[in-house]
Amino acid sequence: MLILQSCPVCFEEFDASRKPHTITCGHVFCHPCLEAINQSGLESAKCPICRTRFNPDSARAVIGSDQPRQEAKLWESLKGYTKGNCRTEQLPCLPSKEELTRIGASEGICIAVDTMRMLLHAENSSFELEVKSQQLQVDRDILSRRVANLEYRLKQLQGALIINTSHNSMKGATGQTESYRSNEAPRPSISSDDDDPPSPRTKPTVRQ
After folding, report:
1. For the chain, which has fewer Cβ within 10 Å, the N-terminal or C-terminal residue?
2. CATH topology classification for 1-65
3. pLDDT tens across 40-51, in order?
C-alpha cells in the first residue's frame, strides 16, 4: 500500500484539511493546491510534475487517505517485516488485537497484522523442519557408517569360521587314519631260508 506523506507542490503533510487528491495522470496533490489551480479559470491545466493537461474538476480523493497517522506507521512497519528474514521472536513487536482496537485500526490493517503473524509462524516452522531434516541426514550418515562397519566385521567372522572349520575337518581326517592303523591286526611274519636255525652236523660213518 502506498503511504502518502506530503503534497509535492506545497510540501505540507496530508491531513484532514489537506486531503490528497489524484488527477488523470496519476499524481497526487492536496485539495487546496488543486483548488488554487481550478481558480485559474482554465478548462484544463498542466500537472505540476509531468506537465500533462487535466481537468481540475476530474480530481478524485484518494481512498483511505484519511487514515490515522498511527495506522500509517503500522503499514510502514509491516512493510519492513516483509523485507527481512523474520522469526518468531519478532512476533511480540506486532500489535495485539486489543491494541489495534484501541487505536481504531481499520479492518485492512487488522487483516494484515493477522496475516503477518501467520507468515512468521509458518517461517519459523519451516526453519525448524529444515534443522530437523539436517539432523536426520547427519544421523543417517552415522547409521550408514555403523552398518558398513558391522558388515565388515561380519565378513571377518565368517572368514575366520570357514578357516576354523576347514582346520578341524583336516584334523579329524588325520585322527581317523591313525585310529584305523592302530586297530589293524598284526600280520604274520614270513621266515626266509636265512632265518632257519643251523642243523646239527652228523659225524661221517667209517667203513670197516
Report:
1. C
2. Herpes Virus-1 (3.30.40)
3. 655 668 888 888
